[in-house]
Amino acid sequence: MSKNGKNTAGILAGLLAGAAAGVILGMLYAPEEGKETRKKIKDKAGDLKDQAKNKYGEVSEKVKDQYSNISSTFKDTASNVAHTVKDGYDKYKDQIVSKTADVVKDVEAELNDLKK
């Protein structure tokens, strides 16, 4: 996961924990019966759990999408580099073969001149 993703997850966890603590403290100090307060705390905890699951799903999807995009970009770049290297190799290979053929012809011509 990227550094930005870790920061976002940490901030998200901190916000959810702070919200949960605030809700629980507010309910504990509210002037209601214990049974009613416990029910509210349980309901609110369930709501927070659902919210956390939803946020986790959203963040997870974003991370998967970013990974897919980065992976695709990397594959495309690697493919482009491979093609560029191959094209360069083919270009220089053809030039070397051509130069070698010229040198062979020159040497043969020199040998023929020496034989005469």
UniProtKB/TrEMBL annotation:
This protein's record includes keyword Transport: no
Pfam short name (any one): YtxH
Keywords, sorted A to Z: Membrane, Transmembrane, Transmembrane helix
Annotated signal sequence range: none
Top-level taxonomic group: Bacteria
Cross-referenced Gene3D superfamilies: Apolipoprotein
Keyword Signal (UniProt): no
Positions of transmembrane segments: 12-30
The name this protein goes by in its record: Gas vesicle protein
Native organism: Chryseobacterium oleae
